[in-house]
From TrEMBL:
Source species: Saccharopolyspora shandongensis
Membrane-spanning ranges: 12-31, 81-101, 121-138, 168-188, 200-217
Highest taxon of source: Bacteria
NCBIfam families to which the protein is assigned, alphabetical: CDF
Subcellular location as annotated: Membrane
InterPro entries attached to this UniProt entry: Cation_efflux, Cation_efflux_TM, Cation_efflux_TMD_sf, SLC30A9
Protein name: Cation diffusion facilitator family transporter
Occurrences of domain Cation efflux protein transmembrane (ranges): 14-224
Gene Ontology CC: membrane
Membrane topology, as annotated: Multi-pass membrane protein
Main subcellular location: membrane
PANTHER family named among the record's database cross-references: HUEL-CATION TRANSPORTER (PTHR13414), PROTON-COUPLED ZINC ANTIPORTER SLC30A9, MITOCHONDRIAL (PTHR13414:SF9)
Length: 325
């Protein structure tokens, strides 16, 4: 089942990011109007997109925690992946597209005069501090989760089945980079008198947001279409199954993430031929209970007795994995 403490920490991380992004969006929009900077307006759209993202992530956290029912017997955990995918689309549509439009408008249109750049610098500095607070909050949670599982931060981000904190960290990292790009565009515009630098900064912000949106979408795509559980978990479970006295051979193992820290696990086992039907039933019940007690991530466990020599099963496994039983 989902760790309640972890879920609460994820919610707090998202709420912190939501409040900060909303405040920053208002400041950037004000500065963009005052300075006439395309990069600043693109950054305002960036923060609006991030604010929408946090709303989608809060929806994901709330709806994915609903208990299983007759219509959804494996629960609603995958809703977290769906709403995180919608958040990625929001970043692209609300942020990247607007930044590209502003960039091309500035580059292809008549030269624009810059006004009161100091306002832009002050707003960018304040935004950097606030975004840094949100980034540190997300990084602190990611670092703690990585340490708990014995991973590096990068490896944890790559294999994590919780897209919410990963999304916050990615968008906050992109926000900090975007602020530096906006600062460069604003400064070069002031130094050279050419608004082309402002337009180029806006295009760079758009490309940055598009890259973040793509990364988020790819992550959630894999989880939505039925990505297998962490390989280390599967190896540990398979090893425990092979150690059981009633099991002669672990024929096949199937798994799927049905939510954050929730795994659907199926194993096909070749049980000892000496077991009668009653002993086989008792062995299945015992092994099921043992796995659930030792591996909290296993939300549903299915154990199927099959002979190792089954030719049809062997062919299916070969087709799926490309190696013999």
């Amino acid at each position: 089942m989902v760790d309640a403490d972890k879920g609460g920490e994820s919610t707090l991380t998202v709420l912190v990011a939501l409040g900060i992004n909303l405040a920053i969006a208002v400041m950037k929009a004000f500065a963009g109007v005052i300075t006439g900077s395309a990069a600043m307006l693109s950054e305002a759209a960036h923060s609006v997109a991030d604010t929408c993202t946090e709303v989608f992530l809060l929806t994901a956290l709330r709806r994915s925690g609903k208990p299983a029912d007759a219509r959804h017997p494996f629960g609603y955990g995958k809703e977290r992946y769906f709403w995180s995918l919608i958040a990625a689309m929001s970043i692209f549509v609300s942020g990247a597209v607007f930044a590209f439009i502003e960039g091309f408008r500035t580059l292809l249109g008549p030269p624009e005069e810059q006004t009161q750049p100091l306002v832009g610098y002050v707003v960018l500095a304040l935004a950097f501090v606030l975004e840094g607070v949100s980034w540190l909050r997300a990084m602190r949670q990611v670092r703690a989760e990585a340490a708990e599982s014995g991973d590096t931060i990068l490896h944890h981000l790559r294999i994590s089945d919780d897209p919410t904190v990963k999304t916050v960290l990615l968008e906050d990292s992109a926000a900090l980079a975007g602020l530096l790009l906006a600062f460069a565009g604003l400064g070069l515009h002031q130094l050279t008198g050419s608004s082309a630098w402002d337009g180029l900064a806006s295009l760079a912000i758009g490309a940055l947001l598009a890259a973040v949106a793509y990364t988020m979408a790819r992550t959630n795509l894999g989880l939505l279409i039925g990505q297998q559980a962490d390989r280390r978990l599967l190896a540990a479970v398979r090893s425990r199954l092979a150690e059981q006295p009633e099991v002669d051979f672990v024929v096949d193992v199937l798994s799927m993430n049905t939510g954050t820290d929730r795994v659907l696990f199926c194993a096909r086992l070749d049980f000892a031929a000496t077991l009668d039907s009653t002993e086989l039933e008792r062995a299945v019940v015992r092994i099921d209970s043992m796995l659930r007690a030792e591996f909290a991530e296993l939300d549903e466990v299915f154990l199927e007795p099959v002979p190792r020599e089954d030719p049809e099963l062997r062919a299916r496994v070969l087709a799926r994995y490309g190696h013999p039983l």
